[in-house]
C-alpha cells in the first residue's frame, strides 16, 4: 500500500457545500487521498467556494494568494477550486491565479478522480459543464466508516425560481431531483454508520419531484418513506420556498412522527412592492397564510427565515413592512443580509439603496430578530424536550446536542454517548444555547 496523500478542504457557504465537500473527499479517497486538518502538510488544498453574497470571488482570490506560498515548501502540492465561484468564474480563476491546478463546478464533482490524474501529470484540469448525467450516480460509494449522529443528504439541487437577486439558478443550474430509491439507499447506509438524524438538502427542497416506485414523488411522500427507515429517528429539510408548501407537506408536519418541528421558510421582504421586484411570486399576506396553516398543523413549530434589506428601491415604508411581518410571525431563528448586487442577475443593474441607510435597517432588523430569538429561548425554560447528543461538552460529564427545535442544549449526562436521545428539562438559557437536566 502506498502512503495516502493528504487532502485539506476548506468549505464556504451553505450546507449543500458541506455535503459536497464530504462527497468530494470520498471520491478522492479512491485516488488515494485521506483528509487532513493541516493545510501546510497537504498534497491537495481544495477551496469549496460560495458565490451567494458580497465579494465572494475576491475573498477566494486573496485566500489563493496566501495558499500558493505552501507550493514553495511542497512542490507536489496541488490547489483546487470547487463550488459556485468556480462555476461563475471558470477559466478566469487560473488566469488570475496561475498557482491553481484544478477548477471544478458543482455539477462535475464525479469527474474529480480523472481530473486529479491529469493534474498529477502536471496538466491543468477545468470543468464547469452542466452534464446530463447525475453526478451523484457517478460518485463512488462511500467507505463504510462510522460517523457522527447527524448528516446532510442532498435530494434536490438547483433552482428554477429566478429571484431577481440570486445567483443560484446560474451557479447550480436548473432544478434536478434525485430518485427516491437512491435517497433511501443512502439514508439506510448513513443509519448503519451511526446517523440518527438526516437533513434533506435542496436549494428548493420542497419543490422536490423525484422518480419513485409509484411514479412522481413529492417531498411529503419522500419524508413518509424515510419515516419507515428503522434506526433513523429524526428528519429535517431545508431550504423551502413559501409557494411550494403544499397541503400534504404541511400535514406531514402535524402527522409524521420523525419530522422535526422546525421550518426554515425564507420570505426576504415584507413589502409587496419589493417582493414583486424580487420576482418572489408571493405576497406578504400569502406568506402569512402559509405560516398560519403550518401552525394549525403543528402549533409548537419553530420558524426560521431569511431576509434581505436594502434591495433596490426599498423605501423606509417597505422596510417597515418587513419589520411588521417579522413582528407577526415571531421567528425563533433568522438570517438577515444586506442586499449585495450579483453580476449576471436581473437586479444587478438597478440603482442601490444608500449604504448607510441599508446598514442602519439591517441593524434594526437584526435587533428585532434577536429579541424574538431570546424571548423564544426564554420560553423554553421549564419545558421538556428531547435532545440528540452530538458531542461531549467542555465540562466533565457534559454532553451537547440539539432539541427538536434545533436549539443547542448542554446537559450533564456522564453516562450518555454520542447518538443517544434523552428527555431533558430546560433549566436556563445562554446567548446561543440552552442548559438542561436529564429527566430519566
Ligand atoms: N444579496 C443578499 N442576500 C442574498 N441572498 C441570496 N442572494 C443574495 C444577495 N444577492 C440571501 C437570501 C437567501 C439566502 C440563502 O441568502 O436571503 O435566502
Ligand atoms: Fe435563489 Fe430564489 Fe431559488 Fe432561493 S428560490 S435559490 S433565493 S432563486
Automatic annotation (TrEMBL):
Domain TRAM as annotated: residue spans: 378-440
Record: residues binding [4Fe-4S] cluster 1: 14, 50, 84
Principal location: cytoplasm
Pfam families: Radical_SAM, TRAM, UPF0004
Gene Ontology MF annotations: 4 iron, 4 sulfur cluster binding; metal ion binding; tRNA-2-methylthio-N(6)-dimethylallyladenosine(37) synthase activity
The organism's place on the tree of life at top rank: Bacteria
Catalytic activity line of the entry: N(6)-dimethylallyladenosine(37) in tRNA + (sulfur carrier)-SH + AH2 + S-adenosyl-L-methionine = 2-thio-N(6)-dimethylallyladenosine(37) in tRNA + (sulfur carrier)-H + 5'-deoxyadenosine + L-methionine + A + H(+); 2-thio-N(6)-dimethylallyladenosine(37) in tRNA + S-adenosyl-L-methionine = 2-methylsulfanyl-N(6)-dimethylallyladenosine(37) in tRNA + S-adenosyl-L-homocysteine + H(+); N(6)-dimethylallyladenosine(37) in tRNA + (sulfur carrier)-SH + AH2 + 2 S-adenosyl-L-methionine = 2-methylsulfanyl-N(6)-dimethylallyladenosine(37) in tRNA + (sulfur carrier)-H + 5'-deoxyadenosine + L-methionine + A + S-adenosyl-L-homocysteine + 2 H(+)
One GO CC term, this protein: cytosol
Domain MTTase N-terminal as annotated: residue spans: 5-121
Keyword line: 4Fe-4S, Cytoplasm, Iron, Iron-sulfur, Metal-binding, S-adenosyl-L-methionine, Transferase, tRNA processing
Cofactor(s) in the UniProt record: [4Fe-4S] cluster
InterPro entries the record matches: Elp3/MiaA/NifB-like_rSAM (IPR006638), Methylthiotransferase (IPR005839), Methylthiotransferase_CS (IPR020612), Methylthiotransferase_N (IPR013848), Methylthiotransferase_N_sf (IPR038135), MiaB_methiolase (IPR006463), rSAM (IPR007197), rSAM_horseshoe (IPR023404)
SUPFAM superfamilies according to UniProt: Radical SAM enzymes
Every Radical SAM core domain range: 145-378
Positions annotated to bind [4Fe-4S] cluster 2: 159, 163, 166
Compartments, record wording: Cytoplasm
Functional summary from the UniProt entry: Catalyzes the methylthiolation of N6-(dimethylallyl)adenosine (i(6)A), leading to the formation of 2-methylthio-N6-(dimethylallyl)adenosine (ms(2)i(6)A) at position 37 in tRNAs that read codons beginning with uridine.
Family: Belongs to the methylthiotransferase family. MiaB subfamily.
Oligomer and partners: Monomer.
The protein's name in its UniProt record: tRNA-2-methylthio-N(6)-dimethylallyladenosine synthase
